[in-house]
Structure formats: C-alpha cells, structure tokens
Specification:
Helix content: under 10%
Strand order of the largest sheet: 1-2
Number of helices: 2
InterPro entries: EGF, Teneurin
Pfam families: EGF_TEN
Number of strands: 14
Shape: rod-shaped
GO biological process, one term: motor neuron axon guidance
Radius of gyration: 25 Å
Largest sheet: 2 strands, antiparallel
Number of domains: 3
Strand content: 35-45%
Order of helices and strands: HEEEEHEEEEEEEEEE
Protein name: Teneurin-4
Organism: Araneus ventricosus
C-alpha cells in the first residue's frame, strides 16, 4: 500500500510524499509521531511531545507567565524554585511577598520596629 510505494511509515498523523513524511497540523518529526507546541512556548520553554516545559522563572501552558517576578529580589532575598511544575519565589528569612522585596519584622516580641528603628506605639 502507501508504505510500499513510499518506504516510510508516517502513521496516522501524516502522509508520505516523495520519500518524506508530510505531517498534519499539530505534528512533527521524521515519522509525524511527535506533537508540536504553540509557537509561544519557544520564548521561555522547550516543547516535549506537545507539552511546553518552562525554563526557570516561567510558567503556564505556553510558558508565558512570569513565575518568579523580578528574580525574587535577587540574592540574598530569595530564590526561584520549582514545585509541582510551577515556579515561585522562596523568600529567605527576613523577606516576604510574591517577589521577596518586602522586609519583614524579625524580632516581634521586643515591641520595636527593628526594620526601621522606631518604637511601636499601641
């Protein structure tokens, strides 16, 4: 049949033309056996058989969402970490917020605002 005429098995996702597989939309590879990703994936991710695998700091279906805003405030404020496939900032002690830029009170029991040097008045 077609395999005998062409010499290639293009599976159900492509057709053999002139000794090569011409893949249907959404498929790629020498035998049309790998799913493609949305073009947006290639900005901040790598396509792995139809799944966009995001590089550090990016997330979402097409890796278009910034997962670690402003690099988590940089060292020593926090690090960008991946948990359950999502990137987020893990803030170091003394820092908080989505981007680890909020200085946190470190000595709550002394009734002083140690971060600005003023006494707390109730």
């Amino acid at each position: 049949m077609e395999l005998a005429k062409c010499g290639l098995d293009c599976g159900s996702n492509g057709q053999c033309e002139e000794g090569r597989c011409r893949c249907d939309n959404g498929w790629t590879g020498a035998h049309c056996d790998q799913k493609t990703c949305d073009d947006r994936c290639h900005d901040h991710g790598q396509c792995n058989n139809g799944t966009c695998v995001c590089v550090q700091g990016w997330m979402g279906t097409h890796c278009t969402l910034e997962g670690c805003p402003d690099t988590c405030g940089g060292v020593p404020r926090g690090q960008c970490v991946q948990e359950d496939g999502q990137w987020s900032c893990r803030c170091n002690d003394g820092w908080g917020g989505k981007d680890c830029k909020t200085k946190q009170e470190t000595k709550c029991a002394d009734d002083k605002d140690n971060d600005s040097g003023t006494e707390i008045i109730y």
